Amino acid sequence: MGNEPLTHLINPQVKEIQISGIRKISNLVSTYKDAITLTIGQPDFPTPDHILRAAEQAVADHRTTYTPNPGLPELRQAVSEFVQRKYGLNYNAASEIIVTTGASQALDITLRTILTAGAEVILPGPIYPGYEPLVRLCGGVPVYVDTRDNGFKLTAKLLEPYLTDKTRCVILCYPSNPTGRVMSETELADMARLLENRNVFVISDEIYSELIYDAPHRSIALLPGMREKTIVINGLSKSHSMTGWRIGFTLAPAYLSEHMVKVHQYNVTCASSISQYAAIEALTNGIDDALPMKAEYVKRRDFVYDRLVGMGLELVKPEGAFYLFPSIRRFGLSSMEFTMKLLEEQRVAVVPGDAFSTYGEGYIRISYAYGMDVLERAMDKMEAFVKAL
Ligand code: PMP
Q1: Of 77, 178, 292, 382, which residue has the fewest beta carbons closer than 10 angstroms?
Q2: Which residues are in the Aminotransferase class I/classII large domain (predicted)?
């Protein structure tokens, strides 16, 4: 007695949270030394040199103190100009933009600001596994909508029956992780018409907005009636290959940002000053840094897509992000069984679809954030595997 763990006193909501399925598979894969992994959700390109130099300069100049809670004013100005120029979004640098530690923390402060216990949050499945635990920690109730037979898109028609008077928020993640799908102009317009007169927030996670291949990015916040109820989440992790710098941001009307910034302040005070100086460089002198990466991703997407189609796999050609999400249903294996067998027999690692909610069952996620040589070897092995099944 007296020195025993107080396990029973740990917050049950935290105890119930599961380690992400992507992390689990990555841990498992690391035990197979010779495996080719296609599991990673981060760009394989290095952070551009000019951004590294800006960070080095910030360190040399001792610009290493706290910054204002919502971020350096110059950075918020740079974000404001970047999103205006790229996507036509108008947000005031002083009152409507918060610089966060990655898109992850942007999601956290947003959900904590808008959710109360019992609030329902719509999640189109399959979906990035980062949202559900955050919703649960706020006492919110995740309500999944199965988008598998709808091209992995949450359309107004599919969403409408799920809206109740408890619905507080709809999360949209397009371009999508894990499917790479993007909502069309018409689909966005229909969604806006459905939601404009409802008391529902929209969180639009646009972290892959710079990685759309066939059309310009369009934010739902631009549509009539949507600006006041939408919180746009974005950041530099994918656009500038800066996952480890931890820079994200929120775009939200002043009446919301005013409260979100309090959560942010007590949560992290501010994002890293050095990373913020690097981000100013990225968003001013590096506004098109994503373009050469995008050209490379398009080649890889086309290559892997053609190979998978050649193997007889059923899949939609993704319009953005760097993932493909083929169906493996016809093999009569669960996505976990398929993944394990592929890993054991051919030493190729992918993520089982059920890591993206139960609505990802029947699929696997293949990341093409890898060099062509890796992708070629992986596809040869996968073809041999599929032939033998
Ligand atoms: N949203 C989505 C859809 C993502 O895929 C990721 C990262 N994989 C994040 C948010 C988190 O981004 P960050 O690293 O900037 O926190």
Answers
A1: 292
A2: 34-379
Of the chain, the percentage scoring pLDDT greater than 70 comes to 100
**265 Cα–ligand 1 center, Å:** 21
Between the alpha carbon of residue 78 and those of residues 72, 93, 199, the distances in Å are 10, 8, 32
ipTM > 0.95?
yes
Give the residue-averaged pLDDT of 284-313.
97
Index of the ligand 1 atom closest to the CA of residue 247:
15
One domain, residues 306 and 186: no
55 inside domain = no
Instruction: Please tell me whether residues 276 and 296 are part of one structural domain.
Output: no
Structural domain boundaries, residue 372: 7-46+290-388
Chain centroid to Cα 311, Å, comes to 28
Asked if residue 20 has its Cβ within 6 Å of ligand 1, the reply is no
Pairing of strands 167-173, 201-205: parallel
Domain finish residue from 284, 306, 341: 284
Together in a domain, 111 and 245: yes
Is 83:75 a contact under the CB 8 Å cutoff? no
Helix, strand and coil content of the chain, in percent to the nearest 5, comes to: 45, 15, 40
Domain assignment present for residue 1? The answer is: no
3-class SS of residue 152: coil
Mutate to test the pocket of ligand 1, among 207, 243, 357 (most ligand atoms within 8 A of CB): 207
What mean pLDDT do residues 329-335 have? Answer: 96
Residue 246 binned pLDDT confidence (cut-offs 50, 70, 90): very high
What pLDDT is recorded for position 2? 81
Sheet strand arrangement including 351-352? 323-324, 364-367, 351-352
220 and 185 in a common domain: yes
In the predicted model, what is the mean pLDDT of residues 304-329?
97
Strand pairing category for 248-251 and 97-100: antiparallel
CATH classification of the domain holding 236: 3.40.640.10
Give the pLDDT band (50/70/90) at residue 1.
low
Residue with tokens 């119930």: 16
Does residue 182 contact residue 175 with C-beta atoms inside 8 Å? yes
Looking up residue 375, the CATH number of its domain turns out to be 3.90.1150.10
